[in-house]
Design goal:
Largest sheet: 6 strands, antiparallel
Radius of gyration: 28 Å
Structural class: alpha+beta
Length: 467
């Protein structure tokens, strides 16, 4: 399911990215030879083209008839595009006439530049055409966030709402944190929201963190190696709210139900040892597998206790409550109407982009290269079941990532073309086709090396059991 979601998400994003190039090309009367979803090496699932006033279609086709070729059409029809669906599900492309890109070099272009070609257009027009994909991806992300807020609203968990505190990854415990601590401030900046605090730990590498431990305020002096340790350990989650163990329902053959427990009971002790957090309680159950133990719980505000049999798997046959609104009274859910959702989506999208760009500095920390990930890493962030909210939320994030990565000034990416076009606008000197061809090849080599490294990291994580 993760891979299906990733494929659907990337297909949507690549299609809209290439559509951005196509729309600006059409705006400036630049010929677009092909627009393809997926790649069509020697074979296409579907082809369509409009000429002579009619649409023509081909299915499961390897070659395009001569009658469809641009050169054989009448002048008024020569700007029509071949639309297609390939069979290799790795993105797509928009083939713009007269443009040196990853699919062709200067030797593939006609010797005489034509007025409908990309290379004969004014520099500012070429800048718009090549920037169109990035622009559409960015706008897609903002639109998706707006729709998400309008349909599902927004959830916020204040740090203080998790009254049982938080569980921490081992790298945090090594820094001096204890499970149950509640972060109050980072380098003197008050921590109000759980998501913001978790992000700040990753990105700001604070030197001092103040936590509430029981009834005491404790200052933790950080080692300065948190980011390095995160990279080395491949940490995905540093901190999670400690959830109470409240019985939502019983499964067939439940020992808890048979022993007298009811829905809504909130477990607070096992074997006479107080432990209110779900993570602690489930761990304690495993210690009493195939045994009977006294379980303490609150029912209607009254503390009660019952002997309950634990099965061989260390379970008592219940489904625990997972609704955050029920478990954390301070949890906030904000509903938006469409007029409120649009600015909220824009603000959230911009904040998410800034956070992502800031996180890239981790790549330059010790062990940062290990944190690079490829398709496996992208697939892993999708849930292993279908969830429309998660799908659109992750797709919006990937749209922002795609927009930013494509604007990096590396030849082979849109950012490389943008850089050379800006250079031409500033200096009024156009780089030669030979230079663009060499730069394109160098850029493609760098991108290929980066892709091998990122997906190689994924393979290593999979083989070592980290993914």
């Amino acid at each position: 399911m993760k891979w299906i979601a990733l494929l659907l998400s990337l297909t949507l994003l690549v299609s809209t990215h290439e559509l951005g190039h196509l729309l600006f090309a059409k705006l400036f009367r630049t010929r677009v030879l092909r627009y393809y979803i997926f790649f069509n090496y020697k074979f296409s699932i579907f082809k369509a083209k409009k000429f002579n006033g009619k649409w023509h279609f081909l299915f499961f086709n390897a070659t395009t008839p001569d009658s469809w070729n641009v050169e054989n059409l009448q002048p008024e029809d020569q700007d029509n595009t071949l639309w297609g669906l390939g069979w290799i599900p790795l993105g797509g492309y928009c083939d713009i006439a007269g443009m040196i890109d990853e699919t062709k070099d200067k030797d593939d272009l006609p010797s005489e530049p034509q007025p409908w070609e990309y290379r004969t257009k004014k520099a500012w027009q070429r800048l718009c055409i090549i920037s169109g994909g990035v622009l559409v991806n960015f706008l897609t992300a903002l639109l998706l966030y707006g729709v998400i807020f309008a349909h599902w609203g927004e959830d916020k968990l204040p740090m203080s709402a998790a009254t049982l505190g938080y569980d921490y990854h081992q790298v945090m415990i090594d820094e001096g944190f204890q499970n149950g601590d509640i972060i109050c401030s980072l380098d003197g900046k008050e921590a109000l929201d759980f998501a913001d605090a978790a992000t700040s730990l990753f990105l700001e590498n604070p030197s001092t963190v103040s936590v509430l431990r029981g009834d005491s305020l404790v200052d933790i002096t950080m080692s300065g190696h948190l980011v390095e340790n995160i990279n080395n350990e491949g940490v995905k989650t540093l901190i999670t709210p400690r959830m109470p163990f409240v019985i939502k329902s019983f499964i067939s053959g439940s020992t808890a139900k048979r022993c007298g427990m009811v829905e809504g009971d909130s477990i607070v002790s096992v074997g006479g040892e107080n432990m209110a957090a779900f993570s602690e309680i489930t761990s304690a159950f495993k210690l009493y597998a195939d045994d009977t133990v006294n379980i303490g719980f609150y029912r209607g505000g009254e503390l009660m206790s019952l002997p309950v049999a634990i099965n061989s798997e260390g379970k008592i046959g219940v489904q625990a409550e997972t609704d955050i609104a029920r478990l954390f009274p301070g949890y906030q859910h904000i509903n938006y109407n469409i007029l409120q959702a649009i600015p909220a989506g824009i603000s959230h999208g911009w904040k998410t982009l800034v956070t992502y760009v800031s996180s890239l500095k981790m790549l330059f920390s010790p062990g940062g290269v290990k944190s690079l990930g490829g398709f496996g890493t992208m697939a892993s962030i999708f849930p292993d079941y279908w969830d429309w909210h998660a799908f659109w939320n992750i797709t919006a994030l990937l749209a922002l990532i795609l927009a930013f990565m494509n604007i990096i000034p590396i030849p082979g990416l849109d950012g490389g073309h943008i850089l050379f076009t800006l250079w031409e606008i500033i200096t009024r000197r156009k780089p030669s086709d030979k230079f663009l061809n060499i730069a394109q090849n160098v850029g493609l080599f760098l991108l290929l090396a980066l892709m091998i490294l990122a997906n190689g990291n994924d393979l290593w994580r999979w083989l070592s059991g980290m993914m």
